[in-house]
Design a protein that fits this description.
The protein has 2 helices and 6 strands, in the order αβββαβββ. The protein is of the alpha+beta class and 149 residues long. The chain has 2 domains: 104 residues; 31 residues, no CATH class. It has a 4-stranded antiparallel sheet, covered by helices on one side. It has a two-stranded antiparallel sheet with strand order 5-6. The chain is globular and about 55 Å long.
C-alpha cells in the first residue's frame, strides 16, 4: 500500500464494516481530501485476483468522485507505478448499487495489466499549445498521427 499509516488512522474499526490492521487491504475508510467539503468513503477488498476500492461521498450522496479524487485515492492505496483501472463494463453487466460510487481495480493474480501505448494519448514531453484544446493520437494505417481540436 502506498500510505498504509494514513489509511489505518482513518480505518473504520466498529460497525458493519469495522476492521483492524490485521485485515490489511480489506476494510472501510473515511477521510477528507484537500479541496473536498465532504469526506470520502472507501470500501476496499482483495480477493479472486483483484484489489478493489469503491469510492463515494457516503451513502446519501449521488455526486460521483472527480478524476482528482480518484487519483488521490489511487495514490493512497497503491504505489505510483502500479497499474490501476476504472472499468466501463458491458451494459448487460452494469451494477448500480450506489449511484455516486466509482471503482478502482488492480489485477493481483500475476498477470500484467495491459495498457495502451502512452503515445495514443499524446506526446509525453510536450505541453498543449492552447488551454482547452482536445488533442491526442489517432492510429491511421498502423501509424500514430497527432490530432488537435
Amino acid at each position: 500500500m502506498s500510505n498504509f499509516d494514513f489509511l489505518n488512522i482513518h480505518r473504520l474499526r466498529v460497525g458493519q464494516f469495522g476492521t483492524s490492521e490485521t485485515d490489511g487491504f480489506n476494510g472501510a475508510f473515511r477521510f477528507n481530501l484537500p479541496g473536498e467539503v465532504r469526506p470520502v468513503h472507501i470500501i476496499a477488498s482483495d480477493g479472486e485476483g483483484w484489489q478493489h476500492v469503491s469510492v463515494s461521498f457516503g451513502p446519501d450522496s449521488k455526486k460521483c468522485p472527480s478524476w482528482e479524487v480518484m487519483c488521490a485515492v489511487k495514490d493512497l492505496f497503491w504505489e505510483p507505478e502500479d497499474v490501476v483501472i476504472q472499468i466501463h463494463p458491458r451494459k448487460s453487466e452494469y451494477v448500480t448499487y450506489h449511484p455516486g460510487c466509482l471503482h478502482l481495480w488492480r489485477c493481483t493474480d500475476g498477470r500484467e495489466q495491459p495498457t495502451p501505448p502512452s503515445i495514443m494519448v499524446g506526446p509525453m514531453n510536450e505541453k498543449p499549445t492552447k488551454k482547452g484544446n482536445i488533442s491526442g493520437m489517432l492510429m491511421i494505417d498502423g501509424k500514430c498521427v497527432p490530432f488537435s481540436l
